Amino acid sequence: MPKQVLVTGGAGFIGSNFVRYLLQTDPEVTIINLDALTYAGSLENLNDLPDPARHHFIHGDICDRPLVDRLFHEYAIDTVVHFAAESHVDRSILGPGQFIQTNIIGTFTLLEAARQAWLTEKTVPIEQVRFHHVSTDEVFGSLAPEDPAFTESTPYAPRSPYSASKAASDHLVRAYHHTYGLPVTLSNCSNNYGPYQYPEKLIPLMILNALHGKDLPVYGDGKQVRDWLYVVDHCEAIWRVVTGGQSGETYNIGGGNQPTNLEVVHTLCDILDELAPTSPHRPHRNLIRFVQDRPGHDRRYAMDITKIGHELGWRPRMSLTTGLLETVRWYLDHPDWIEAVRKGSDLQKWLERNYAQRGGNP
Ligand code: NAD
Ligand code: TYD
């Protein structure tokens, strides 16, 4: 069983939820959390960790090979769970370079360090090691309404700089398994939502804008479909794959909820109407504005999760209705987190840059 786990990107949205989940779930594990604290990462996401003595935060870049080498040795790392990435499609459209650097070169750097430590220097017995790569359903491209959901054997067809960079990193991870025998697993997951998500993504952006009476910018006709998954369900699925998945295998993870974007925004507005009855912005649906679409916008994603269900007995627990309610509650209950994240990042500048060009009012 894993003991010394290097989590990359553990100060981001999913990574910080995973750190919390793992500390709660597995009392044997020590976590070494390597994160560069980009605009998307924050130590505020790691407040109130259970059993914090088993969590070591390292401020650094996954592209820094000497640093990564040092961590493999100093902590005798036996497991890597690799989240660190540039993760926002809109940012990849306006500036793809950083996506190539972090998502491709960063993954390559980690793979090389793992190969050196585990296969050449044999720092840990080979049967105890695992490199797990966290990836996305976006590598499969876009589905038409009548298409079946993505399976693990759907051909890759990424259409944004973000998804192309994730596809490249997935291929590298598989290549290290086939070429060098590195023990790896991969998971491709659908859109996550829940606590600690940086408010540039659809769900937290809509919640915060609605609270402040700002426009709710819906891209295009709002009929795009995403397969929403509650983040804690994702964390559980990843740990199942790391501890029980077959080396060399890929597992699809999804929520089984496939509403249109507009339906999601409507639901959030209705929840806010109820939870914030004195808000001067009720009914929040009046704030919805249709703005210029994202270039190359993928129309529909849906995940077939038969394999992880059959092999590892995982399925999502949280319904979308309850998950959205919990998420809105979490943002309402955490104004200090919102304020700290706003102050410590480029959020307002980003919103002005992204939404002014779309005809929205950031
Ligand atoms: P995020 O943007 O919230 O967090 C990314 C984290 O990585 C941040 O803490 C950031 O500081 C860190 N980071 C960025 N560049 C780094 C570098 N060079 N070195 C070290 N750390 C660096 O992202 P997220 O939404 O939590 O996504 C985590 C992973 O899950 C990503 O690999 C993403 O592709 C994948 N994923 C995300 C979703 C989703 O819906 N959010 C869905 C499927 C897969
Ligand atoms: P997002 O949260 O950026 O995730 P992804 O692009 O990785 O799926 O967007 C989810 C969906 O919501 C996507 O179809 C784009 C759409 N969207 C909007 O309509 N308005 C927005 O302001 C944002 C950020 C996204």
Automatic annotation (TrEMBL):
- This protein's source sits in the domain of life called Bacteria
Keyword match RNA-binding: no
Q: Which cofactor does it need?
A: NAD(+)
Where the record annotates domain NAD(P)-binding, the positions are 6-325
Q: What is its EC number?
A: 4.2.1.46
Q: Does the keyword NAD apply?
A: yes
Q: Which reaction does it catalyse?
A: dTDP-alpha-D-glucose = dTDP-4-dehydro-6-deoxy-alpha-D-glucose + H2O
Signal peptide span per the entry? none
What GO biological process term is on the record, naming one?
nucleotide-sugar metabolic process
Q: Which InterPro entries match?
A: dTDP_Gluc_deHydtase, NAD(P)-bd_dom, NAD(P)-bd_dom_sf
Family of this protein: Belongs to the NAD(P)-dependent epimerase/dehydratase family. dTDP-glucose dehydratase subfamily.
Q: What is this protein called in UniProt?
A: dTDP-glucose 4,6-dehydratase
Organism from which the protein derives: Anaerolinea thermolimosa
Q: Which gene encodes it?
A: rfbB
